[in-house]
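Input (Hydroxysteroid dehydrogenase-like protein 2):
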Amino acid sequence: IALKAARDGANIIIAAKTAVPHPKLPGTIYSAAEEVEAAGGKALACIVDIRDEQQIGEAVQKAVDKFGGIDILVNNASAISLTGTLETPMKKVDLMLGINLRGTYLTSKMVLPHLLKGHNPHILNLSPPLNLNPVWFKNHTAYTMAKYGMSMCVLGMAEEFRGQIAVNALWPKTAIQTAAMDMLGGDGIGKQCRTTDIIDYTGHFLVDEDVLKEQGVQNFDQYAVQPGHPLLPDFFLDDAPETLVKKMEEHGATPAFKPPPPSSGPIESTFDAIRGVINEDVVKTTQGIYQFDLSGDHKGVWFLDLKSGAADVIMAMDSSDFSKMFAGELKPTMAFMSGKLRIKGDMTLALKLEKLMTRMSKAKL
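Output:
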């Protein structure tokens, strides 16, 4: 985007953190500035962490002092971690929310006073349409929340500043070949991508291919890294994550964001068996919710809901003892007396659970 604007003679402010080359991702704000000026524009490189209000303010002031104002803001900075809720450390959650959502909001807020003075001002966020299909949440809820935060800035600010500032979002239809994509997709991803060359109207979520089609472009092979090769659809559009993984693997790429396979360990098998013997009568006679805090080889927290609401009984034990209890190999009473089982809550309900375990052992778990 910067290079295209530079070829049109624009003044470009490059606000980013990378002042020293990264071992895996090439380029710095200074090398980007050199490319901008080589393309015919003027550049100002500013070291900015967009989580830092002071650094943003200083960069905005430098831009106004050097170029006389600001007409366009492009919010591109993003952090990504395609991991599930239990696998995502809060440090990464804070990073994604701090850069994607808060950073976009804060930078827009600080540039807005200058945009309001400009002629035909714009904000463009590199963020997806707000697709609420659960498939885009289940494997990486934190990332989707953070990315959709950028999109919600578009939705809100477009209406708030309608008639004054155009605020839109742009999202690629297919994967785009960048150094970050090479890291995420691994070897073989490049040929499934397009190049960056593809990249009073407000409040829209634009997909690059749709914009070009409206302008009469029909030949999209000119943007392909390898013309004629099948392309990989981008996140948050119509294809589910599993479909993207399948398409990548069919053409030799190794996705780093592959959704976790369905669980099939001993604890899952035990719960599958439990489901097989639960019926309406069991729920009526039990009326309890059990929480199992498992340690050992298959540690985790599991719930057995034979009512609804918060857990009435919390049972902490080794995961191997959990499977033995429901297989009829270890009585809860004996496990409790020997210290293998720790119970908090309604002891009467704990005894009722023993009846279910007896029933399951008869069913030969």
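Strands lie at 11-16, 42-47, 72-75, 122-125, 166-171, 205-207, 288-295, 300-306, 313-318, 342-345.
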